[in-house]
Design goal:
Blueprint: E1 9-11, H1 19-31, E2 36-38, H2 46-56, E3 63-72, H3 90-106, E4 111-118, E5 128-134, E6 140-147, E7 152-159, E8 163-167, E9 179-184, E10 187-190, H4 198-209, H5 213-236
Parallel strand pairs: 1-2, 3-6
Antiparallel strand pairs: 3-7, 4-5, 5-6, 7-8, 8-9, 9-10
Helix pairs in contact: 1-5, 3-5
Length: about 240
């Protein structure tokens, strides 16, 4: 309805429950030259920008391994994330972050080499998952996510000459300090980060894209690329979305 009305669309993640719906919506948006922004707030935080700058400057050498891990305890079952009819499930709700953010760091759409989705007893949705992805440059990504586990929210990038560690990497709870460090052997260097509201920065970027043709095209492209990644992970795990 939003796109048919000629209005730019901001969507919570995941964009759609299945790939066919995403392709249909992006086609519609393209015909009307509208922007489609799917929520990926951590990609707009100063922490993420700093990581991209460090990688671009070769501070830790060529990225070899990326490990992205996001998990937290179960919450009340009445929440929509547990309802399959409302797009519930850990892959679309949580797996989206480590998978897509890793792809954004690599600057390319990686190939999904393997994946697994699992469900805790008594739940009608997938409650956890893992995926292994590789890039054309040879980097490998290990992504894990899930409900019903101790809180973890970390991103580690291992390069030829050093390692970057980001905490918390995905959601940014107000009571936790956002940190970024560079490790080399036994030495550790903290990277200073500016204060940042990742949601505010995301919406500012979306607003800017609505008045820029190249920006609108980029947002549409990213939305579809990311949904295809989700679909490929589901297929590799033996499920489908």
């Amino acid at each position: 309805k939003v796109l048919t009305a000629g209005v730019h669309l901001w969507s919570e993640k995941a964009f759609t429950n299945d790939l066919a719906d995403a392709e249909s919506l992006i086609k519609l948006a393209g015909e009307r030259d509208l922007a489609v922004c799917v929520s990926l707030a951590p990609a707009y935080h100063a922490q993420f920008r700093a990581i991209r700058r460090l990688l671009g400057d070769g501070v830790v050498g060529r990225p070899r391994d990326i490990n992205a891990h996001f998990g937290f305890p179960h919450v009340a079952r009445k929440r929509s994330l547990y309802d399959p009819a409302l797009g519930g499930g850990a892959l679309l709700d949580m797996g989206y972050y480590p998978i897509v953010l890793a792809a954004e760091l690599l600057g390319e759409v990686p190939r999904v080499r393997g994946a697994n989705l699992a469900g805790d007893d008594g739940y009608a949705i997938d409650t956890s998952g893992a995926a292994l992805l590789t890039s054309a440059s040879g980097a490998q990504v290990s992504a894990q996510w899930g409900y019903g586990r101790d809180y973890i929210n970390e991103l580690t990038i291992v390069g030829d000459t050093g390692t970057i560690v980001a905490k918390p990497a995905f959601s940014k709870p107000a009571h936790l300090a956002v940190t970024l460090s560079i490790r080399r052997q036994n030495a550790c260097e903290d990277v200073q980060l500016e204060s940042c509201n990742q949601f505010e920065e995301m919406l500012k970027a979306f607003a800017a894209a609505t008045i820029d043709g190249a920006g609108r095209h980029l947002y549409r492209t990213k939305a579809l690329e990311h949904q295809r990644l989700m679909a490929e992970v589901a297929v590799r795990s033996g499920d489908g979305i």
